[in-house]
Specification:
By secondary structure, the chain is α+β, with helices and mostly antiparallel strands. It contains 5 helices and 5 strands.
């Protein structure tokens, strides 16, 4: 699944530059980082495709539930098979929803605090999520 690009202003030239979210896997942890288009173009296409395929395989095969959220809206961008099967949803029932709209995660106060942490830190771990 390709994540949408966003735009950022270059403070020096006042030109908008495309950004791309690129998955990063380190010691079994997955994160996403945004790369400026010039940086993304510098990575050979083959290496980028291999990295994306490696990430996708890890995401799909993980035996942990993984949600990828839009940091601005808190809506689900992607969900791995382990989590949607565990919760009894289809991917289409989860994608586009906020975490608070999904029944196992209905604690609104906690979810709002987690969204603030996601916006500040760039990631959040639900290690002891009661189901």
């Amino acid at each position: 699944m390709e994540h949408p690009s966003s735009w950022a202003e270059d403070p020096d030239s006042r030109e908008a530059r495309a950004e791309r979210r690129t998955p990063i896997v380190h010691n079994g942890n997955v994160a996403a980082r945004e790369m400026l288009s010039e940086q993304a173009e510098a990575i050979p296409d083959q290496a980028l495709r291999e990295s994306e395929l490696s990430y996708r395989r890890l995401f799909e095969a993980a035996k942990d539930g993984i949600l990828i959220l839009d940091v601005e809206t808190g809506r689900v961008d992607d969900v791995n098979p382990f989590l949607y099967r565990l919760l009894g949803f289809s991917p289409s029932e989860m994608i586009g929803k906020t975490v608070g709209e999904l029944s196992p995660f209905k604690d609104i106060v906690t979810n709002q605090a987690m969204l603030v942490r996601l916006q500040q830190d760039g990631y959040v771990r639900y290690e002891d999520l009661p189901l």
